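Hi, here's the filled form for the chain we discussed.

Project: internal
Contact: R.S.
Residues: 110
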Amino acid sequence: MRVLGVNENLAILLMAAKFDVMVCPHAGGVGLCEYVQHLSMWDYLACSGTMENRMIEFVDHLHEHFVEPCRIEQGHYMMPTAPGYSIEMVEETLQDYRFPEGKVWREASC
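And the returned structure, exactly as it came back:
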């Protein structure tokens, strides 16, 4: 089952810690890896205190569109270095994909 909301994920992480159940938050969409890495950090630091039976999905594309892309080392998300949710998009991406005047849309209509 896939859930995307923060509140739903927090509830699942709390229940998983209580009942020692493995969880794997969904992170397959644009910016979701950048977003859910924070859930993983929260789970480790404030909820479960362990990485055992904990994993989080990672999709290795589209990270170049974010100001603070997530980082993976030895199969683990690294702590973000900037405040916020890590989902701020780079200005060039926002301009290129702005509909209908963005470069991507103009080129697609040719």
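Let me know if anything looks off before we file it.
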